[in-house]
């Protein structure tokens, strides 16, 4: 979809998307479908990326270190929030 075209429309709310996959993912908001399951705790997620982020908590993965103090975070957004203390 070039030039800002959004040919895929949601039948429930009318929101439009450039890619069919984005429409499918959006549709899960309306249906409540959560097809991506955590194998450890069985929590469901609409997006695969959310499941991967969640699984880091089980593994205690913290791949985002602060360059100033070395403290590590599981999410880049949390690192960005933390970095304000060094400003």
Describe this structure in words.
The chain has 87 residues and is an alpha+beta fold. The protein has a domain at 36-86: 2-Layer Sandwich (Double Stranded RNA Binding Domain). The chain contains 3 helices and 6 strands, in the order E-E-H-E-E-H-E-E-H. The chain starts with 7 loop residues before the first strand and ends in a 5-residue tail after the last helix.
In short:
This protein is of the alpha+beta class and 87 residues long. The protein contains 3 helices and 6 strands; from the N terminus they run E-E-H-E-E-H-E-E-H. Strand 3 (36-37) and strand 4 (44-45) form a beta hairpin.
Keywords:
two-stranded antiparallel sheet; Double Stranded RNA Binding Domain; DNA-binding; transcription; repeat; 87 residues; 14% strand; nucleus; alpha+beta; flat
Could you tell me the number of beta strands? 6
Full CATH superfamily name of the domain at 36-86: Classic Zinc Finger
Shape: flat
Largest sheet: 2 strands, antiparallel
CATH architectural type of the domain at 36-86? 2-Layer Sandwich
Unreliable segments of 5+ consecutive residues: none
Q: Order of strands across the widest beta sheet? A: 1-2
Structural class: alpha+beta
CATH class of the domain at 36-86: Alpha Beta
Mean pLDDT: 93
Percentage of residues in DSSP E strands: 5-15%
End-to-end separation in angstroms reads: 41 Å
Domain C2H2-type: 8-35, 36-63, 64-87
Subcellular location: Nucleus
Family: Belongs to the krueppel C2H2-type zinc-finger protein family.
Pfam family, one: zf-C2H2
């Amino acid at each position: 979809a070039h030039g800002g075209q959004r040919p895929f429309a949601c039948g429930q709310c009318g929101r439009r998307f450039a890619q069919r996959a984005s429409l499918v993912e959006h549709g899960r908001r309306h249906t409540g479908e959560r097809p991506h399951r955590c194998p450890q705790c069985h929590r469901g997620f609409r997006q695969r990326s959310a499941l991967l982020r969640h699984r880091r908590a089980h593994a205690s993965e913290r791949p985002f270190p602060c360059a100033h103090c070395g403290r590590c975070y599981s999410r880049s957004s949390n690192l960005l929030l933390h970095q304000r203390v060094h400003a």
